[in-house]
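Re: beginner question about structure tokens

> Can someone show what the tokenized structure looks like for a real chain? I only ever see the sequence side.

Sure, here's an example I had lying around. Input first:
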Amino acid sequence: LSYYLFMEKSILRAFFDSSPVTSRGMEDINKKIINLLNRNGCTVVQTVMGTELAYLDQHSGRAASNIYTARLNEVRHADVFICELSTVSVTLVFEIFEALAQRKPVLALIGGENQEALDAALLGHPSNLLSVEVYNEDNLEGKIEQFIKKAHGKVPVSRFTVRLTREMGNYVNFLKAKMGCPSKNEVIIKILEQMVREETEFTGGSSTN
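And the corresponding structure tokens:
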């Protein structure tokens, strides 16, 4: 019973997307990824383009715009974003950047030897929220399981209020302008993220507070 209660509390809303499907084999891989995400405690939301070869026989700019807008909305409402990116897609790269801008953990899965092409597409993005993994049939499950386990520690779950002195408040405003952040909250998050990356003693363990 305690296991199921834990799973209920820790379920992640995951948005899955992929490059346009060009073969039945690619469709099967996408379905396998979705099944593995479900098995690892995710509620998966996806565009049907990833699992249906005959998706929308519409080629107008309006149809494409509607699909893209729907995808971005799903990214914004998800806890995590996972994509199959063996074939580099401009749309998926934009979705990755949107997810990172929204502070969502991202897993980009690459089958085969396309790492260099993807690195170029992502411009070596240094975010600690981005995991780029080359996978095969044998290690796919482990890659997804490891990502979900780490993602639980990166999804926002707590909120607190802190009172600053006038000097501290002025300094945060100074950093906000200097760092190009849209809010003071963003400044604090970026500072903490950098400290977590550089900290050698912290292991990411849970806290009771």
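Each token stands for a local structural state, so reading them left to right follows the chain. Residues 113 and 134 are 8 Å apart (CA to CA).
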